[in-house]
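Re: that chain you flagged

S.,

Sorry for the slow reply, it's been a week of failed gels. I finally had a moment to sit down with the sequence you sent. For the record, here it is as I used it:
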Amino acid sequence: MDIIDVVIIALYIALTLFVGVWVSKKASKGLDSYFLGGNSIKWYYLGLSNGSGMFDVSGTAWMVGILFLYGVKSFMFMWMWPIWNQIFVMVFLAVWIRRSNIMTGSEWILTRFGDDKAGRASHLIVAIFAIVASVGFIAYFFEGVGKFMTVILPWDVSLVIGDTVLLTAAQSYALIIIFLTTIYTIKGGMYSVVATEVLQYLIMVLAGILVAVYAFVTISDAELTALIPTEWKNVFFGNELNGFWDGKLATFNDLIDTQGYKMFGAFIGMTLLKGFFASVAGPTPSYDMQRILSTRTVKDAAYMSGFTNLVLFIPRYLLIAGVVVIGLVYIAPEMAASGSVTSNDLEIVLPKVINFHVPVGIKGLLLAGLLAAFMSTFSAFVNSGPAYIVNDIYKKYFKPEASDRHYVKASHLASFFVVTLGVIMGFFAESINSITLWITSALYGGYVAANFLKWVWWRFNGWGYFWGMLAGLIIATLQFLMDNNKDNFIDGTLLYELAHIPAIYLFPIIFVGSLLGCFLGTYLTPATNMKTLKSFYSNVRPWGWWKPVYRELKNEDSTFTSNKSFGMDMLNCAIGIVWQSSMILMPIFFMVRDYPKAFVWTAVFAVTSGILKFTWLDKVKKYKN
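Prediction finished late last night. Pasting the C-alpha cells below so you have them in one place:
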C-alpha cells in the first residue's frame, strides 16, 4: 500500500473514534438516551444512519460476487433478505410501530399480548431472537471483514506460537477492527452510532462515486460490449438458469451449475413467497426497528423509512457496479484461466479489485469507505442487541429498580457479551455465503409466521407467538448445525440429502413448522384479554381480521372506524418494489454502458417517484404528529 492510502485510512479511523467518543456524553443520561437517543434525533440523520447501517462490507462483497457471475438478474437474489421489507416499513409498518412509544421490539410485543404469562413468554422469545440475530450478524461481519482486510493489507498479523497458528491474519484483522468499533459504540450508544454513521455514509458515497468515475473513464464501451454476454444484461429469466458465458470465460458456467440457483424459477418463486410474508411481518427486532422507535414522531418514522430507501440503493450499486466492471475486465480472464472457479473466488473479487486495479488515493478512500460500511453496520447491531438483554431481560426479570447509571454500565457488559459470542461463531463459519444463507433463509424464515400473524389476526395470542418463534428458532439452529456438518453425513441418507438442500428451499419447511407452533399455541390456550386487544388495535390501527375487537370498540364509540387502507397499502408496496428495483438497475446499466436500458429504468424511477408522491407522501403529510 502507498503511504497516501495508509494515511487516509488512519485519518478515517481517528476521525470516527473522535466523533464517536465526542458525542458520547449525551448517552449517559439513561437507557432511553443510550438506546434511542432520547427521541431527539432528526429523521434525516436517522435515515442516513439507517442506510449506512445496511451498507455493510460483507454484503457488498457478496453482491459484487453474484453480480459479477450472474449479471443483472442477481438483484433478485437480494429478495432473500428481503429488501422489500424497507418498502413495507415505509408504506405502513413504520407508522404502526412508532405509535407504541416504547424502547425495543420485544417491549413492543407486550403492547400486543399483555403483561401476563403469555405476554411475557412472547416478550422473552423475541428478545432471545434479537440476541441470536445480533450474534449471527456479528459472525457474518467477522468473516467478511477479515477476508477483505487480508487481501487488501500487506502486513501478516497472524498469531503463531511454534508450529501452531492461534489466529490467522484474517481473524486478527477482524478482531482489531471489531475492537475499535466496539469502543465508540459502547461508549456513546445511539448518539455515537448515528453521528459516526452519518460521517461513514458520506465517505462511502464519495468512495462509490470515485470508483464509478474511474471505471467509466479507464474502461471503454467497446471493451465491455466485447466482454459481457447479452444474457448478462437480461433482467428476464426462465425456469432454469443456464450458463451464458462463452469462449475463455466458459469456466464460469460450471459455477452457475453448482451454486444452488440452477432452478431459477423455483428460487425466485420461493423468494417471492418468503419476501411477502417476511415484509408484512415487519423489521426484525434489531437496529432497523431501533431507528423507527428513535424518531420523534409517527410522521418522522415514515419519512425516515422512505429516506432510507432513497439514500441507500443508488450509491451502493454505483460502487458495486463500478467494482464489477473493473473485475470483469481485469480479473475474470485470470480467474477463468485457472480452470476452476469457486464461491470463495467470488467473495474476493472486491478486495482484489481494490488491491490491484484502483489507483493511489482512490484506493485509500475506497478502503476507508468499506471500513466505514463495516463499522456502521457492526455498530448498529452492537447497539441494538444489548438493548434486549438489559431492558427486556435484566431490567424486567432480575433488577427492576436500579439507577440509570447502573443500567448503562450493564449495557456496556451486554455489548461485550454479544460481540464475544458473535466472534466465536465467526471462527466456525465456513464462508460469507453460508452465514448469509443461514440468516436470510433459516433464521429469518423462523421469524416470519409469528410476526405476520401478530399484525393481522386478533385471536393470535402470546403462547402462539412463543411456540411459533421457538419452533422457527429450533429448526433454523438445526439447519445451521447440519449445514456446517454436511460432509460428515453418509451419502444417500436422509440427513445427507437434507443437509445439502440450499437453505432457501427449506423455507417452506421452516415456515410450516413455525406456523404449526403458532396455531397449536394459540388454540390450546385462552385468547388475549379484550382490554389489551382494544388498547393495541385502537392505538396501532392495523388492517386484518380484527372484527370482534372492532365491534367492541364500535359499541363504546360509534365514531370509531377501522383501517380500510389495505388495498392502497398493497398498491403502494407494489409500486415501491418497482421504485426500489429501478434504483438498483439504473446504476448497473449505466456502468455497463447499456444506455437504452439505463434510460428506461431512469424513467421508471421518475414515474414511480411521482406516483408515490401522490399515493404515499401526501398521505403521510396529513399525520398530526
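What I noticed first: Residues 91 and 143 are 34 Å apart (CA to CA).

Talk soon,
D.
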